[in-house]
Specification:
Elements lengths: L4 H13 L3 H21 L2 E4 L3 E4 L2 H24 L4 H22 L3
Antiparallel strand pairs: 1-2
Helix pairs in contact: 1-2, 3-4
Amino acid sequence: MTKTIIEKIEEKTSELHSTTSTIVHEVVMFQWKSGRQALNKFKKIEITGFGKFSLRPKEVVKSITKCERMYESLEKQLLLLEEREKKRETIQKKLSSLLDEIEFLKTKL
């Protein structure tokens, strides 16, 4: 499975600063949520080092559909998973992120 942008940022930052992935995840999610809150007030935001972002209704619908499909797939994996606890934890983080994303995008329609 390919990694999300958030996962790539977390991995690189964790390695670069020799910090646990849990701490990096919390920091990244805080930054992401702050960006979402700003988008609730404004149509466009700029995040230093990442660029300018804006939401278009057509793209929002596509994103919701994609997130819902990913969520269903991860939910199935979680049910079938009897492997390592770390793998379960990773999938649960992804599910949580996807739920946040879906709820946020629905507010934009």
